[in-house]
Amino acid sequence: MNAPANSPPTTAPLSGRLRRQTVKERFLANGGVGSIAIFFLAVVLLFSLTTDEFLSIGNILNIVRQSAPLLIVAAAMTLVITTGGIDLSVGSILALVSAVSATLLQWHLPWPLVIVLMLAGGGLVGALQGFFVAYEGIPAFIVTLAGLGIISGLANLITGGYSIPIAPSMFSEIGRGWLLGVPFPAWIAVIVLILAYVLFNETPFGRYVTGIGANAEAVRRAGVDTRWTGLFVYVLSGAMAALAGIVLTARLGSGSSNAGQGFELQVIAAVVLGGTSLFGGRGSVIGTVLGALTVAVIGNGLILAHLSPFLTPIVTGAIILVAIWMNFRIFSGSIRSR
């Protein structure tokens, strides 16, 4: 069939017929990340003006080193939550790895072997939980809440409630060492975040993760093994929790069953602050980085401001609630109204 004489030429470039997005529209399209970026800068400005030591090089490096375990686990948690799941057991896995790794080092096992065993163990725990979530259809909240109780109990059983000291060795350098003037844990966190960004944004696996959270049945009908993908994100979550446990144990120089107390809540808060939807289908590794750093900066700034330790969790929770409100009400509302 011939085209009508008055039809527009088919060789016209498509880009010429599309309206380019304005800066405001681009900002609103990434409102979750944009809002946490603004909030992060506001928090940094607040503590810079109210404390003398906040912007010192030493304090900034201290924030980066202390937030490394949070950044490592939050990167993997972004994938889990984007699928529509959640992992409440990351803090207990961190504690179990802390207790077991310290015990194995006291038995004089080579530290590289201890690291390999801990990463494999964390991945195995994640695989077991992922099996029940992805293959048996049990809600992730229930599976990982049960996992939290079981794993915490194991950690307490191993330590008996006491800390297990570690003699200084190359293992300790993982948490206390420096490279090019930057704490070694920060380098580990940067490598993990780069790998997570590439996996999430530049590979088919990342697109499957987002698709499962948005419409799992449609992704399954497209030929994707949604159950294996769902299981694998929990394997990553368990392995990264184990890596965070190794970093924290090396930095503290001891293993403790209390090491990860409340850690899972900080991780989830960081991911949600970064714009990842708790209902799945939308996530951002960059937003997670900003969310985790915001949580770390708030904790550090409140200490420097000499706030009572009893008021710190109250103020921290209130600030995080305001930030999440900004995400859900201001930017989501702006997008819907367009």
UniProtKB/TrEMBL annotation:
Its keywords, alphabetically, are: Cell membrane, Membrane, Sugar transport, Transmembrane, Transmembrane helix, Transport
The primary site where this protein sits is membrane
Q: Where are the transmembrane segments?
A: 27-50, 70-97, 109-132, 138-158, 178-200, 231-253, 265-298, 310-328
What's the domain of life for this entry?
Bacteria
> What is its subcellular localisation?
Cell membrane
Q: Name one Pfam family in it.
A: BPD_transp_2
Membrane topology reported for the UniProt record: Multi-pass membrane protein
- In Swiss-Prot or TrEMBL terms, this protein is called Simple sugar transport system permease protein
Q: Which organism is it from?
A: Labrys monachus
